[in-house]
Amino acid sequence: MVDPKLFTQAQQGDPVAIAALINQSLQPLGVWARAIRQDATLHIELEGAQAPEPAGVLPRLTQGMRQLSPRGIAQVYVFGFVLREIQPAWRRGIELGVAAGGDRATAELDPPNLSPLTMPNPPARSRVTVGQGGQRRAKRRKPFVIKASDFEPMKTAVILAIAVYGCLGALNPSYDGPFFWIHFPNLAIHETGHLLFMPFGWFLFVLGGSLTQILFPAAFTVYFFKTQQRFASAVTLFWTGQNFMDVAVYIRDAPVRLLPLIVDNIDAHDWWQLLSVMGRLNEAGAIANCVHGLGVVIYLVSVGAGLVFARKAATAAFR
């Protein structure tokens, strides 16, 4: 059964989706497909342990392209390859046009209508072959180059601002530092967490504040990632890391209990109670360092992911 979303992407001319549909049809025959789009032209490379027989694959492709009618594609060139070979064993053309009445028409163009000599060469393939004397030859890949124009300006500006803000906050995560403004919504989530975990016993009731403070932004991160909102997931991942650093400040304060609480009783300090019960109060500093370090790592990952998802190519690939 064809995935409707995949079919829609293929109809829009997405070469990756088109190749996926072709593979669903031809892989039972031992044929693997790759599609590359160049403006209104689509190159389809079919590869097998032996060169796929044109008579066996072209009728399926012709029928499939007629049903698909991909937007913006006028010509389709099909190349048959032996596995790991660079030069195609054969090549054919399929022309997509508009028939009378505006309907799509698809015609298979075999020689001599479209001679292989008049067809374009397939896009450069990186293949390793064994020549005489066992020397291995390979076509060089193009170097990977990153340009400023590859990035969406708004997303890049947002993630760079997060990078700077997160760095300043990581160096001074105290509640009067750069994270001062985020601490207030974090505190509201923290207190709500106590109420949510109240039915599960005293220990989870006390731990639930800090736990909810971390799980709340983490849940948004998972949601955005699964719904293909990848850049948004990077932003909420930073918020998750920041909450780890926020909780670390609370843990570090447990032995001295100097931070202001929402009640006057200093014995209501969550982490003083938890670490005292566990007999780990003298290890509060080491535990806080671990939690803070984890928050910094998550913050760095979020910045790296944000830069990746700010790239226009990445944005198109994840749609």
Describe what is shown at a glance.
With 319 residues, this protein is of the alpha+beta class. 50% of the residues lie in helices and 14% in strands.
Number of beta strands: 7
Query: By helix and strand content, what is the structural category?
Result: alpha+beta
Computed CA radius of gyration, to the nearest angstrom: 29 Å
Total count of domains: 2
The whole-number mean of residue pLDDT values reads: 82
SSE string: HHEEHEEEEEHHHHHHH
Strand content: 5-15%
Going across the biggest sheet, name each strand in turn: 1-2-3-4-5
Instruction: Please estimate the helix content.
Output: 40-55%
- Distance separating the two termini: 21 Å
* General form: elongated
Low-confidence stretches: 98-118, 127-142
- By DSSP (H or I, 4+ residues per run), the number of helices equals 10
Mind summarizing the main beta sheet? Answer: 5 strands, mixed
